[in-house]
Amino acid sequence: MSSPDFIAGRELRTHGARIAGVVSCVPSKQVDNDSFAERFDPSAVRDVVKMIGVDRRRWADENTSAGDLCRKAGEKLLAGLGWQADSIDALIFISQTPDYRLPGTSFVLQAALGLPTSCLALDINLGCSGYPQALWLGMNLIQSGAAKRVLLAVGDTISKMIGPNDRSTTLLFGDAGTMTALEASPGDAPSHFVIGADGKGVRNLIVPSGGFKAYDAAADERMIDKSPECLFMDGGEIFNFTLNAVPKLIARTLEIAGSDKYAYDAFLFHQANLFMLKHLAKKAGLPADRVPTNIGEYGNTSCASIPLLMTTELKDRLKKETLQLGMFGFGVGYSWASAALAVGPLDIVDTIET
């Protein structure tokens, strides 16, 4: 498969909007690697963990959804900002694990948070690249004049669709929900984005069943002994796509933003796999001390991983400083998205548990 052409991707810019606050919410249930001792051979667990770098992860219980996690984060966020619910002009829910097939979870959150009927409510099906895309969408609503305050609910409970006997996914994924507040800020510097997709990678990371199109799993030898109702991941294909494409995404993002890598305080990558992250940073020549990770503690939390990095690894600095951040999301679709922007000081930045 040919690599995606990032030069032909959408290179975008917004102005007049800022991030005011971010809150992440993770389940209280912590699952460490010892929990899999009876299910998998211990040596096999050690081999997988050495590659992915996950020591523990948070899993939601059967009664807790991604929408629930985002709602808890949203309640904390609005209280910390001192924003009234009726001041919110739009809410965008980014997830691949919605509460229901219909209606959209954005409507559930609109009602639960007491947002006005004039509030735009949108659901968007995005995974690993979702957070930079959500930022671009929300900031564009503000730039256009359609909104002054926007909430981005970004989260997934991937644990609910992994096969219990599939080491590649069971050991990797964790659950989290986040809420980010955007508001109009005319004097702020522009934010830069690169967004693209290559749909030829669709079948390499997929849940075949549950939608409204028949999927012939028998025609795909990789699906032998796999449940079509569970997440299937071709790790080799995903790995090759990422290592080939993301360094180009990094270089192009820095180029269009007009700053070199040393002008950035941190580079926030989707927490896909620890070995992969280290390799990406090295290949792109990024200073290792400016590439924070938390995959060891939380696992791969899909679209929530970048804001979760902000509320864990950068929490103290974002409360007090303005940081120049590069954000890079990539994966399912295939899809990719980046953001280069200044963030902080934030009125609230926190991680809570259910």
From TrEMBL:
<dbReference type="InterPro" id="IPR016039">
    <property type="entry name" value="Thiolase-like"/>
</dbReference>
<keyword id="KW-0012">Acyltransferase</keyword>
<dbReference type="InterPro" id="IPR013747">
    <property type="entry name" value="ACP_syn_III_C"/>
</dbReference>
<dbReference type="GO" id="GO:0006633">
    <property type="term" value="P:fatty acid biosynthetic process"/>
</dbReference>
<dbReference type="GO" id="GO:0004315">
    <property type="term" value="F:3-oxoacyl-[acyl-carrier-protein] synthase activity"/>
</dbReference>
<dbReference type="Pfam" id="PF08541">
    <property type="entry name" value="ACP_syn_III_C"/>
</dbReference>
<protein>
    <submittedName>
        <fullName>3-Oxoacyl-[acyl-carrier-(ACP)] synthase III family protein</fullName>
    </submittedName>
</protein>
<feature type="domain" description="Beta-ketoacyl-[acyl-carrier-protein] synthase III C-terminal">
    <location>
        <begin position="256"/>
        <end position="341"/>
    </location>
</feature>
<keyword id="KW-0808">Transferase</keyword>
<dbReference type="InterPro" id="IPR013751">
    <property type="entry name" value="ACP_syn_III_N"/>
</dbReference>
<dbReference type="Pfam" id="PF08545">
    <property type="entry name" value="ACP_syn_III"/>
</dbReference>
<dbReference type="GO" id="GO:0044550">
    <property type="term" value="P:secondary metabolite biosynthetic process"/>
</dbReference>
<feature type="domain" description="Beta-ketoacyl-[acyl-carrier-protein] synthase III N-terminal">
    <location>
        <begin position="122"/>
        <end position="199"/>
    </location>
</feature>
